[in-house]
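I hope you will forgive my troubling you with a question about protein structure. The full record is reproduced below for your convenience:

——
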Amino acid sequence: MKKDEKQQLFSESVLQDHKNRIVRAKGENNIETVIEVLLSLRVNALQISPELRRNLITELIRNDIFFVKQNGNFKFLSELLQIEQAGLKHAVCAMMSVVASTVHGVEYLLVSEARPDFEAVTRVVDILYKSAECTDGSVTQRFCLAILQKMSCKEEVVELLNKLGLQTWLIDLLEKSTKIKGSKQPTVSQPIHVFCLDFASALLANILHSYAVLEALEKNQSLLKDIMTRLLNLLKEAIPTSVLIHVLICLSYLSKERFNQVLEECLFVERISDFVEWYSIKNPIFDATNPEGSHGKNATANAIVDKKTVLDLCAHMFHPKESSHDVSGTMEYNELKQEEKIKEFENVQGDLIFECFQDEVS
C-alpha cells in the first residue's frame, strides 16, 4: 500500500464514517457492530507505517474519535467499558492504547490538561482488578497494561496509580509468573504472556520514578520494605531480561540516602553485590537454550548481549557517584534522569509500536 493510500485510512471522511457507525450502533445497543467498527479502526491503524503513526493519532484526536471534546468528558468510552460482553473491553482498550501512544493522545484521554479527568485511568485499573475478561496474561490485560504504561508519562497519572495501590498489584503479577517460594501469590496454570511482564515492570519503574511516590514511601516504611524485599527476591528468578532490567531500575530508584534504615534492614548493598557476582558467572548459553527460549547462534549471541547489558546497567546504577567523596559502606547510587521515563512503545528511532498479538480474537 502506497503512502498516500495509507493516509486515506485516517482521512476525515473515513474517521467521521466510523464515528457515525459506532454512535448509531451504541444507540441501538448493537454491541457486535460497535466491536466491528472499533476493530476496523484498529486494523487501519496497524496498516499505517511507524513514521506516520503520530500523524494518525493527531487525526484521531482532531476528529474527536471518542467524543471526548464534544461531551467534555470520558463518558462515551466509560459506558462501553462497563458493558459486560466478550470482546468489547478488548476492542475499546486496543484503540485506547493506540491513542495513548503520544503525549497529546494521553492528554486527550484525560479530557482537559488544566483540569484532568482521570476516569480513563480508573476504568482501566478497575478492569485489571475486577473484570472476568482480564485474566493474567490475557489480551485484555495486555492492552490495559499498555494503556497505563503509556499514560504514566504524566506525573498526575502516576500519583493516582500509586494511591490506587497499583505497584503492589504489579509486583503480585511478576511474582505469580515466577512461582517464588513463600510468595503469597498462587501459581499460574500457564506462563503469563511476556508482554504483560514487560509492560508491568516498566510501569512499576515509572511509578517508583516519581518524587511524590518516593515521598509517600518515606512515610510508609513497612510498605517500602515490602516492595524492596520483593524486588530483591525477583533478581535471581527466571524472568525475561527486559523485566530484570526494569526491576533493577526500580531498585535504583529506591536506593536513596533517606531510605538508609530500610536499605540496611534489607541488606540491599550485599544483595545487589551478590546478584552481580552470581550473574557474572551465569552461563548465557543456558539461557539461550532453555526450553522456554529460542535456539541457535542468534539466541546465544542475544543472550551474551543481554548479559553484558545487565552488568553494564548495574555498574552504572549501583556504584558511588563520581561527585561523591563518600567511601562508606552505604553508597550514593546513580539513577536515570527524571525525564527518562521508560517508553516500551517506541523503537530506537522513536517511531511508535502498536501492539498486535497472534492470539487476538478476530
